[in-house]
């Protein structure tokens, strides 16, 4: 095919081409100019191209027109076609197809052709087809010049980086005023809609300023943003597009923040945000998470300030704060980095002195931002302006002076928190009256604003702490700025707590009979439920198995009242953990511990699994094997113990997570409204559903008031003598004395304490008990050292005997389980917040996995408090008990144990001790169950410590009296008439001997009672229904008119024994270590095996007694000496009736 117009050097003015030329010129946008893709497509429609080709001046045949049209549209050569029209070279269009010149050749680069001795054109295409085209004409210079307007890039969602020639214009149709910062400028722009895929809108265009080693830092910035692009965090701004144009020009596009930066946000009235101040905590937590994500990629921000935290409006009510300008985030700062380019107050240049930064650099800066955030929220705008004025551009959060213990060293000097910063933190402490915000401020001051950087928390640690605090906050209002005239006072402590009749206000005048009834419908909605696949059995070292269950009906009821925490964002997970489907039945994890360690810096779950593995004592080369069992992950060997707990978000509706406990891994803050809300709901449930409240027993006449109570209903607490005529609710404290409380009631101060008990003089345990009582609305408290006159023996004996009634009639017992002495306090937890990781299911459910914490056996049974002798009856006789342990609070009643993380535990021993009317729950057991009960109780008690060993017989007196009442029998000193034989056959363990206790005459205890001895006891193993009891002894209780007698004697037929050394070694167990002549030993046969195979092999269960010489005017007296398992040959037929004292 031929073209008659191909050789013309300059085309005459032609109609269709001139019209198209005019349209192109009208459509050019921006500065520098570009032709939008939408217009390129419109101008290269088949009709417009055909119109130009059909121009008579081109002299093209119909078949040529058809050929060139297809080439331009399909090759394509649309842009080349339009560029030729723009250059007024339309007569060259016919040469395109013959030289294969197309859009693929663009852009055209001008070069000098030595052979032709003239400027030619070239392109990146190999081989460059445009050369042949431009050899035929002189259009190259004008083509190269005009082509750039047609080269504006199309930003595709699948592509992030663009390398462009410097002359290529960016497709911007709106540009705002440039805002300058230390290293860059930023302006608001809008990309032409046809040049960007997806949602269109405003973007922020950042361009670096010219500096030395521009290429070096441009490369760093590009690499940083590429890494940032791979981080998917809702509080981190991801770059949208990177355009590199030559060695010194780069354009970085980010989403535009309609709300401005955080500094702009603080210009708003904080009172508008008081009702939703939980939003502030959400944003703080999210910002910490963003820094943790950066740190996991070995990145840091290095210039964190309010201006680099942007406020985005989105589908949430208040929008989202996001960190931007993540540029100087590697270990080395550029030489130009100087405090003048950033706010001095937030910059604490630290490290080795060679410019390297610590990995905790950003935490200091974020702590400064958080302080300002709290000033705005708590103190208000006016005070924030005062703060800005006081700090000024030359003031810092730090100062550099002579070193001390707390400063970070730097030669002979060190960094310290500045006096101005300390002063503003103190101002916040004075005004914040909410425990959640107090925790935030404590975290900032104690863990973030540490000038010694290696003591500062890492980003992931701060994020974990903030997540824990956020879970505590729920949806409640946390702050009210001063502009709203904050009203503080006692009511703040119980704000938001339902004032239910079941809980009630425990005031001085609240008599139980006048309490209004609980709403029935409400009570039904609070029934304890269980939605667990199968209860998890946890085997304890005490032989009792604890069943762990979910308690989701109660959990949902609780969260419906108090509000839910903000849903957790998905954790940062590695490639391995992101494939886990923990919600699937029998899901298993099996991996070498060292692999968790290697990935722990970039994966929250690996960090959790590594921590748990180390806690289990596994080495780096050992494997962790665990499998999901209902709501926990359990070791597969050797003991199936749970090591991880699984939680489902209360708002979630995912059917895949029905196995998990509804709730959160984190715990309510100690002494917080949320903690007291939970305890109140436990009380309400127990009152309404279980009937365990003391008012249940008002009608049977068993309730008696303690002699004295402590009134805590207002700020002036004092000792009161209780009125027997009316019963008021009170709480009782069970605690370890340790070295003794610093304040006790004595004869000398009794009257003074009736007027006032100075709360600052109370030991910390007692102060905490007052807080709990007030938090639960109780007006009265019973504490032994204050309610018993300690230096009055008569008062002490009387009140010690009533101790069982005191705890039995208390509305609830507070057990200071975590404190080893009265002066430690029990509210503050000693355990760190649990690590956790968050997953999203396919149906958008939120699953959180955390360290297992519900170790009731370790937290409660093995706690020091439960090693004390008095505590056994205090716990057993209490109707309901709150255990304040080192890890969490447990609620114990006859229906089981509730955990603060809302799991429910069922342990036979716990159920027994938590029984509201101990020990009636055991009456459903068969006879052997009763025997097991008292033997277990007495064995446990015998191993407990007493400050005064002579209290052994009285510290359990209330519990013993209760047992005898329920068994409808008589007894004393640990011996029960109904089960006399088994009661008498107690013995020492194999590894220890006993010692007689020197009791005062008023509490003389018979030798046949284990209470007469110091040391642990056990019982002879006597098979149930396998023994014939003899009649060779008489019960000391048969002729008594009272249930207990002091100094009773046991009458029995004591037989002579035939024993050799082998028998003494294997068949005899003496109580005490001192030698007893064999000739002085006698045996009382209590029972014999029923087996009849051979008479010689029948075991005789024998109580050993020894003759005591020189007492009662020469009359033979016998005392207990031990027990023995003897055969027929060892037991003589001769003997005598004796009295065993």
UniProtKB/TrEMBL annotation:
<feature type="domain" description="Protein kinase">
    <location>
        <begin position="172"/>
        <end position="466"/>
    </location>
</feature>
<dbReference type="GO" id="GO:0004672">
    <property type="term" value="F:protein kinase activity"/>
</dbReference>
<dbReference type="InterPro" id="IPR010730">
    <property type="entry name" value="HET"/>
</dbReference>
<dbReference type="InterPro" id="IPR000719">
    <property type="entry name" value="Prot_kinase_dom"/>
</dbReference>
<dbReference type="Pfam" id="PF06985">
    <property type="entry name" value="HET"/>
</dbReference>
<dbReference type="InterPro" id="IPR011009">
    <property type="entry name" value="Kinase-like_dom_sf"/>
</dbReference>
<dbReference type="Pfam" id="PF00069">
    <property type="entry name" value="Pkinase"/>
</dbReference>
<dbReference type="GO" id="GO:0005524">
    <property type="term" value="F:ATP binding"/>
</dbReference>
<protein>
    <submittedName>
        <fullName>Heterokaryon incompatibility protein-domain-containing protein</fullName>
    </submittedName>
</protein>
């Amino acid at each position: 095919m031929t073209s008659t117009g191909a050789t013309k050097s300059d085309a005459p003015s032609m109609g269709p081409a001139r019209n198209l030329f005019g349209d192109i010129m009208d459509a050019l946008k921006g500065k520098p100019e570009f032709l939008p893709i939408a217009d390129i497509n419109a101008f290269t429609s088949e009709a417009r191209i055909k119109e130009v080709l059909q121009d008579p001046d081109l002299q093209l045949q119909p078949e040529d027109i058809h050929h060139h049209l297809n080439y331009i549209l399909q090759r394509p050569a649309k842009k080349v076609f339009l560029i030729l029209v723009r250059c007024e070279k339309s007569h060259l269009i016919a040469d395109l197809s013959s030289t294969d010149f197309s859009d693929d050749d663009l852009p055209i680069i001008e070069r000098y052709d030595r052979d032709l001795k003239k400027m030619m054109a070239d392109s990146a295409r190999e081989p460059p087809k445009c050369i042949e085209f431009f050899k035929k004409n002189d259009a190259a210079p004008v083509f190269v010049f005009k082509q750039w307007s047609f080269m504006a890039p199309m930003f595709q969602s699948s592509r992030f980086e663009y390398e462009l020639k410097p002359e290529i214009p960016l497709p911007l149709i709106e540009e705002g005023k440039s805002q300058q910062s230390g290293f860059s400028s930023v302006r608001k722009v809008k990309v032409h809609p046809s040049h960007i895929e997806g949602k269109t809108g405003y973007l922020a265009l950042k361009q670096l300023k010219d500096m030395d080693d521009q290429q070096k830092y441009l490369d760093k910035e590009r690499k940083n943003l590429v890494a940032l692009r791979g981080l998917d965090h809702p509080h981190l701004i991801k770059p949208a597009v990177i355009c590199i144009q030559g060695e010194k020009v780069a354009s970085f596009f980010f989403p535009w923040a309609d709300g401005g930066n955080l500094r702009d946000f603080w210009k708003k009235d904080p009172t508008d945000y008081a009702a939703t101040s939980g939003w502030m905590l959400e944003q703080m937590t999210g910002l910490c998470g963003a820094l943790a994500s950066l740190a996991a990629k070995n990145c840091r921000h290095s210039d964190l300030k309010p201006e680099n935290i942007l406020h985005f409006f989105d589908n949430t009510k208040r929008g989202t704060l996001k960190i931007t300008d993540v540029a100087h985030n590697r270990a080395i700062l550029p030489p130009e980095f100087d405090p003048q380019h950033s706010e001095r107050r937030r910059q604490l240049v630290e490290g080795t002195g060679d410019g390297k930064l610590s990995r905790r650099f950003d935490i200091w800066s974020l702590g400064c931002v958080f302080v300002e955030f709290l000033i705005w929220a708590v103190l208000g705008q006016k005070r924030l302006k005062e703060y800005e004025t006081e700090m000024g551009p030359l003031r810092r959060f730090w100062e550099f002076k002579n070193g001390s213990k707390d400063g970070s060293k730097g030669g002979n000097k060190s960094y310290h928190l500045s006096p101005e910063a300390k002063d503003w933190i103190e101002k916040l402490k004075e005004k914040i009256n909410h425990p959640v915000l107090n925790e935030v401020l404590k975290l900032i001051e104690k863990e973030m604003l540490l000038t010694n950087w290696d003591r500062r928390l890492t980003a992931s640690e701060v994020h974990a702490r903030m997540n824990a605090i956020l879970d505590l906050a729920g949806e409640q209002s946390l702050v009210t700025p001063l502009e709203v005239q904050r009203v503080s006072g006692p009511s703040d402590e119980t704000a938001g707590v339902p004032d239910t009749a079941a809980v009630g206000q425990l005031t001085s005048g609240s008599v139980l009979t006048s309490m209004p009834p609980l709403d029935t419908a409400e009570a039904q909605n609070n029934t304890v439920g269980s939605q667990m696949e199968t209860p998890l059995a946890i085997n304890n070292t005490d032989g009792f198995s604890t069943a762990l269950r979910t308690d989701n009906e109660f959990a949902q009821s609780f969260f419906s009242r108090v509000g839910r925490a903000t849903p957790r964002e998905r954790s940062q997970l590695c490639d391995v953990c992101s494939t886990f489907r923990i919600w699937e039945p029998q899901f298993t994890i099996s991996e070498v511990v060292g692999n968790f360690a290697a990935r722990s810096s970039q994966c929250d779950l690996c960090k959790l699994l590594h921590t748990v593995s180390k806690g289990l004592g596994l080495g780096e080369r050992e494997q962790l094997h665990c499998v999901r069992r209902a709501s926990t992950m359990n070791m597969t060997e050797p003991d199936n113990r749970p090591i991880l707990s699984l939680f489902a978000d209360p708002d979630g509706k995912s059917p895949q997570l029905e196995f998990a406990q509804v709730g959160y891994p984190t715990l309510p803050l100690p002494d917080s409204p949320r903690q007291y809300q939970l305890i109140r709901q436990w009380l309400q449930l127990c009152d309404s559903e279980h009937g365990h409240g003391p008012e249940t027993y008002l009608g049977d006449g068993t309730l008696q008031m303690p002699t004295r109570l402590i009134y805590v209903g207002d700020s002036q607490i004092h000792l009161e003598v209780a009125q027997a005529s009316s019963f008021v609710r009170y709480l009782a404290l069970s605690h370890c004395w340790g070295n003794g409380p610093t304040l006790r009631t004595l004869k000398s101060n009794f009257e003074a304490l009736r007027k006032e008990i100075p709360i600052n003089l109370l030991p910390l345990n007692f102060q905490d008990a007052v807080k709990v009582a007030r938090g639960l609305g109780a007006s009265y408290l019973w504490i032994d050292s204050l309610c018993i006159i300690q230096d009055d023996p008569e008062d002490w004996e009387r009140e010690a005997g009533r101790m069982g009634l005191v705890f039995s009639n208390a509305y609830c017992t507070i057990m200071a389980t975590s404190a080893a002495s009265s002066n430690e306090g029990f509210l503050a937890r000693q355990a760190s917040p649990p690590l956790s990781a968050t997953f999203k299911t396919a149906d958008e459910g939120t699953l959180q996995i955390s360290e297992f914490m519900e170790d009731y056996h370790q937290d409660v049974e093995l706690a020091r408090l439960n090693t004390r002798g008095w505590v056994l009856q205090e716990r057993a006789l209490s109707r309901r008990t709150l255990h304040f342990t080192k890890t969490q609070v447990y609620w114990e009643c006859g229906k089981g144990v509730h955990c603060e993380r809302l799991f429910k535990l069922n342990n036979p021993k716990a159920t027994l001790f938590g029984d509201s009317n101990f020990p009636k729950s055991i009456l459903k057991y068969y006879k052997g169950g009763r025997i097991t009960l008292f033997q277990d109780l007495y064995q446990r008690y015998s191993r407990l410590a007493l400050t005064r060993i002579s209290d052994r017989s009285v510290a359990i007196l209330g519990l013993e009296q209760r047992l005898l009442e329920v068994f409808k029998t008589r007894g004393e000193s640990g011996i029960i008439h109904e089960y006399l034989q088994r009661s008498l056959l107690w013995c020492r363990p194999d590894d220890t001997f006993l010692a007689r206790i020197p009791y005062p005459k008023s509490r003389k205890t018979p030798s046949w009672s284990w209470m007469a001895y110091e040391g642990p006891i056990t019982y002879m193993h006597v098979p149930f229904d396998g023994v014939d009891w003899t009649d060779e002894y008489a019960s000391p209780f048969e002729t008594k008119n009272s249930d207990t007698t002091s100094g009773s004697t046991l009458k029995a037929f004591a037989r002579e024994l035939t024993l050799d050394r082998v028998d003494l070694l294997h068949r005899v167990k003496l109580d005490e270590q001192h030698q007893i002549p064999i000739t002085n030993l006698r045996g009382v046969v209590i029972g014999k095996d029923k087996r009849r195979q051979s008479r010689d092999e029948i075991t005789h269960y024998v109580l050993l007694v020894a003759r005591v010489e020189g007492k009662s005017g020469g009359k033979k007296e016998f005392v207990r000496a031990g027990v023995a398992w003897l055969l027929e040959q060892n037991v003589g037929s001769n003997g005598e009736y004796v009295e065993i004292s």
